[in-house]
């Protein structure tokens, strides 16, 4: 069979132009043009080809596309499979900053700075992936470049020296770049371990933490610093038990490790940095609190050796704890922590309000002692109390002495007074005995006034003024004149000058108690009726155990029924609660339990005794959940 020509469809120019004019090119050209329907190279291939092309427009498109992909589909980029992309992003990121280091500020263009930010943003987003993190963390050149750029940013924002005129137009881009850079360092810093005391990255971050006012930056900086405190496991070989058989390699590593002079970056942290971090706990911000708490936990739990204790992890940790708490100086951080950590332990938890817990039912108690008679001998002031009162001016001295040695008396007390054969009558004293007791107590004052007066001891109050002042000392007292019954009808009744409403005390009380009891309101006649009735019927020392146990059970049931059931695995308990508990428990066990000085214990009691015991009492689930250690209570009571 002879070959015959096969017709080839060719689109004529005239026909194509006609179709274009009619706007109907889609359906016709889609099936007839050569290469129609082919999607072209994949997006990542297209980006790589654009970067290799060297064409400025293609490079700009590639870097912009990469920044978009890093935000929307970061899983498309794998630096281990395409290391070329990582190196290109780094080179375009560092380009304008290399020019700054080379003193070529005037040559930097706006386009180069924008491409640098796009590259840095892409690195920042892609570094959130674990595979990319591990790859980037192994690039020593990247860490070197990051430190160089960080120095530029820190100098620009926080040093305050003269800035380059050519760089002022990039101020906003520098601000944006600093945020991206810190975000990039946050995951990468987990892999930068065993950093030295002079590590430039660590020291630049410490400097920035003291000067930045940006909450977002500060939180990330604290996280990076916490990561940089990580050490490799071989530094902890010293912790292995003595009975464990280590191989020769481990022994050599241990000897080599112990022979080195400790030079970890943790010892570059000074008290000023610690104060700066800890004082952020005073701000009611959960993000700042958790970042600070995580840093403190890492700082205190670090197993890096200190130069003073090159062979003991325990001693190194104890040294840093005392340094943190400023035990040997101002103790400012210690006071902040023992005040704020208990508050953070219970922060954001649904707890019972101690003021709304039902009170304990009133108990009926009887007299426990026969020693309730009115004393026949007035008690004398102690030397310490005497030295204070004797220097008071009159009539304050007389008033204070009366209140310390005498007590107010009311009709409600009569049922509790046991009558005897003595001449002392409850609730009254004679005016002459009162004056004589006053003279006897301050005999030294009026005796020395005759020979050599003491300028610090004012003279005694005259007798008339002293008796008039009794009513000022005890507003419920009253000066009275009573007629005594004559022994026979022939005798004239004698008069007795008394003070009604006071009686001598069994024991001297201090000034505060004396003032309080003298000025408080009188009890109502029926307020103690039940007590008085029981006191007359029940024997002395009687205790109604059944009633007491019943009331105690009722109160316990009321507390448990209102108490929130907290558990450590509940979502309500946050890392703030847990880390705060761990830190406070560590401080108490290492400092308060092992410290012979009472000052630190008194400070802990000062800040927490007025509220924490009541809160624990009304929320027993805090103990059950382990958020509060029962051993802490001995420092609160």
From TrEMBL:
| MF GO annotations | DNA binding
Gene Ontology biological process terms from the UniProt entry: chromatin organization; regulation of DNA-templated transcription
PROSITE patterns in the record: RFX_DBD
Q: InterPro entries given for it?
A: Chromatin_Remodeling_Comp (IPR052406), DNA-bd_RFX (IPR003150)
Looking at the record, the residues that make up the RFX-type winged-helix domain are 398-506
User: What keywords were assigned to this record?
Assistant: Chromatin regulator, Nucleus, Transcription, Transcription regulation
Q: Which superkingdom heads the taxonomic lineage of this protein's source?
A: Eukaryota
| GO CC aspect terms | RSC-type complex
Q: What is this protein's record name? A: RFX-type winged-helix domain-containing protein
Q: Which organism is it from?
A: Debaryomyces fabryi
